[in-house]
Amino acid sequence: MTSTVPALGTRTAEGSALQAVLLDMDGTLVDTEGFWWDVETEVFASLGHTLDDSWRHVVVGGPMTRSAGFLIEATGADITLAELSVLLNDGFEQRIGRDLPLMPGADRLLAELSAHEIPTALVSASHRRIIDRVLKSLGPQHFALTVAGDEVPRTKPHPDPYLAAAAGLGVDPARCAVVEDTATGVAAAESAGCHVVAVPSVAPITPAVRRTVVASLEEVDLTFLRGLMTQMH
User: Is the whole-model pTM more than 0.90?
Assistant: First the structure.
């Protein structure tokens, strides 16, 4: 986990209860959920197995241990979880080296949060090696802290990554806005007590208490995120 915590005076915008914004990476800021499935499909094809497209909804958004473990069990492939993890991370790193499209609105949102000195963390189930590669495209200057899936005892859907991010920023999880694209990530953020904005990427997500669903990051700005803190439920 890497951290550059802003000065105390920047932590809470004047007149706002919003203390920090915590952002998922794959499928939320960068259009990579499809990349993971492409790599998984290619790796298993090389092992002599064809993945069923319906499995995509099972593996999306989760930690590699869960998604890779599921695919090994589902296909009966003769490979260990550790071996498969290496192949998947290698394949994904090669894939994003060729092309890394940002989600619509991601650049603008990150720039706005930086301009207003809102503490912002990147919270991903991806491993540190992948996060550091993606940060080059997102702009590491936009994030006070980053949390990788291989740096916490339990990753999403457990609350640990978001609790670690809030603790690292010195803020109250209940006064954090989280932006996520999968049910797994939403579950992690809600378990941590955060307000959630869901921008579904692969599978639909329904609205709920402390959960707002939008079609695109282009609908999300600082005014919108501050408004989440004042909603009465």
Answer: no
